[in-house]
Specification:
By secondary structure, the protein is of the alpha+beta class. It is built from 14 helices and 24 strands. α3 crosses α4 and α5 runs antiparallel to α7. It starts with 10 loop residues before the first strand and ends in a 6-residue tail after the last strand.
Length: 582
């Protein structure tokens, strides 16, 4: 799906085409060309993961062969210091200038019409933002998929805690190219590469647990680049080099945003979309039930149906997602486009009902904020406790035995699946407190940003608080929807009000289902453990006694963006799969 009715054009592929940057360094790209004189619009994907690797060339879903066969010149380029490109690698440092120069190089290639779009996700997506902020004259549109806004909110850290799970996995699995460049002896390279792979295999048992987190002994043992992996403690300046927040005023091109409800950059993508709309620029948004790496059933342990897939099904107004992006690029890269696009700028997948729905904006303005209070009897209700004599809830958090990550938005070593996963093993722990509503008498849709408020104290001066929202089906299976963390660096031993951002979701809690909230102090190894000592650079840790209030004057609650039923029913779904959730 997503292909035109006419037969695809023939294409040619030219490998390792050099582009000279302003400082003389040559970056190399594979260039895919349609047959014929053109002129053709052009697409650029700049990757640190290897332009010859199929996963890098097509992730997240835009295949350069398909795009070229439909009339685009496509260049997939190795970023500076990676694989086929010259220069030295330093995460994010030269991506803005190199992106500018690469756009103008591509626009000047034979048969190009002089208009360039950029595409790709994650690091590739950030490359687009950094280049666009420099305003290369030939850049006409960008399509950043699943990428961050503020690196302190999902890339490097979250709520003050280090994103340890993705950091070590990311650095190790991309370390081979660093070894290849630095080790001329082929036998020694093979030995070091084998040791690197063994380290990756042992992350769950060894590497994730090593202290201190700062300095990352795991990476130092192999002398590989950390790709900016542990900068939250070691090099705060890396965040400044890849921050999108603050750049929006310098960006003047339309943008197409793709997100997943279980992606590590869910909120960053939504924030980027909202900021571009606020800046007065054309923007589109598609959000599926996807993780960073999974785009079709099953996602985690949940089946959303065939139409929930990103690829291969005509679920987006006659296209798959690739077809929709290519149609959008035609609109902006052709001089006189005759390309129809869906009228609504936002398209979201509503979980629970498992249907796509078009929206006029994000978040839906009709959502009503509704508070659900955690009671001392472990119930969850839309009313607060009545008095101030209600006892606090307590548990012990021990960094030696942290509550494990189970599903969710992280990108960890395999063995820690992302997405919705049955929470029974986590919820059976003494250090995870669970609060559950009565079975719902009617469907309840939650679409938008979820927050939690805790009035909490610890016996330690520094600690973490983690809150998670789950959907419990009639059989008792508890599936996670969204969560968040806040690190209290100092003063945690005083009763304080803490606001935790659980990011955004869209889910209908079906009739007979229950809403559940977990409260704990860790999700390891997605986030590094708080050592409860106030010194995260050390190796010493201690257990802490945690408590939070249910008093009427100091309540603990989640705030849900609820779509009123009467209004919800007036919004027609674009496609429907069924009433289940898997």
């Amino acid at each position: 799906m997503g292909m035109p009715a006419t037969r695809p054009r023939k294409i040619t592929v030219e490998l390792d085409v050099p582009a000279r940057m302003r400082d003389g360094v040559a970056l190399r790209a594979n260039v895919y060309r349609p047959e014929g004189p053109g002129p053709w619009p052009a697409l650029l994907n700049r990757t640190p993961y290897g332009k010859d690797e199929i996963a890098a060339t097509s992730w997240p879903g835009l295949d350069p062969v398909q795009a070229a066969s439909q009339g685009f010149i496509v260049a997939v380029q190795d970023t500076r210091g990676r694989f086929g490109s010259d220069g030295d690698w330093e995460a994010y440092r030269t991506e803005a200038c190199d992106g500018f120069d690469s756009v103008e190089w591509l626009a000047g290639l034979q048969a190009c019409n002089g208009r360039v779009g950029m595409y790709g996700g994650s690091y590739h997506g950030n490359n687009q933002w950094l280049a666009a902020a420099r305003r290369p004259p030939s850049l006409a549109a960008i399509a950043p998929s699943q990428t961050w806004s503020d690196p302190a909110d999902g890339l490097l850290s979250r709520g003050g805690a280090v994103e340890l799970g993705v950091a070590l996995r990311w650095a190790l699995e991309n370390g081979y190219d660093s070894l290849r460049r630095s080790e001329p002896d082929t036998r020694e390279l093979a030995r070091r590469a084998s040791a690197l792979m063994d380290e990756w295999d042992r992350l769950s048992e060894a590497g994730y647990w090593e202290l201190p987190v700062a300095g990352s002994a795991v990476l130092k043992r192999h002398n590989v680049s950390d790709l900016g992996a542990i900068p939250a403690l070691d090099d705060p300046g890396i965040g400044d080099r890849c921050r999108v927040t603050g750049l929006y005023g310098s960006i003047a091109v339309p943008s197409f945003h793709t997100a997943g409800w279980y992606d590590i950059f869910t909120q960053g993508t939504l924030d980027n979309y909202q900021a571009m709309v606020a800046a007065g620029h054309e923007a589109r948004l598609v959000v599926g039930p996807w993780t960073h790496l999974a785009f079709g059933d099953p996602i985690g342990q949940r089946f959303f149906g065939m139409r929930a897939g990103r690829d291969g099904t005509a679920v987006h107004a006659g296209h798959d997602l690739v077809g929709l992006q290519l149609a959008w690029f035609r609109r902006h890269l052709l001089p006189a486009p005759e390309q129809e696009l869906p009228a609504a700028p936002v398209r979201i997948f509503v979980m629970g009902r498992n249907e796509w729905r078009d929206e006029t904006g994000w978040p839906p303005a009709r959502a009503v904020r509704q508070q659900w209070f955690l009671h001392s009897d472990h119930s969850l209700r839309p009313t607060a406790e009545r008095g101030d004599d209600t006892p606090a809830s307590e548990f012990t958090y021990d960094p030696a035995d942290p509550a494990p990550t189970l599903g969710g938005n992280g990108v960890l070593r395999p063995g820690y699946p992302g997405g919705p996963v049955d929470q029974s093993t986590v919820e059976s722990r003494d250090d995870v407190l669970v609060y559950t509503s009565e079975p719902l008498r009617e469907d309840l849709e939650v679409t938008g940003r979820v927050t939690a408020v805790l009035h909490a104290a610890s016996s330690a001066s520094s600690t973490d608080w983690v809150v998670r929202l789950c959907d419990v089906d009639p059989e008792g299976r508890s599936l996670n929807l969204c969560d968040g963390i806040v690190r209290v660096a100092a003063g945690a031993d005083r009763l304080q009000r803490h606001v935790i951002d659980l990011w955004s979701t869209s889910n209908v809690f079906l009739r007979g289902h229950r809403i559940r909230v977990q409260v704990t102090s860790s999700s390891f190894p997605r986030w590094d453990r708080n050592l409860n000592t106030g010194d995260q650079r050390g190796t010493r840790y201690q257990a802490a006694r945690q408590q939070f209030s249910h008093r009427a004057s100091q309540p603990t609650y989640v705030e849900l963006p609820v779509i009123p039923a009467a209004i919800r029913s007036a919004v027609a779904p674009a496609n429907q799969v069924g009433n289940g959730g898997g």
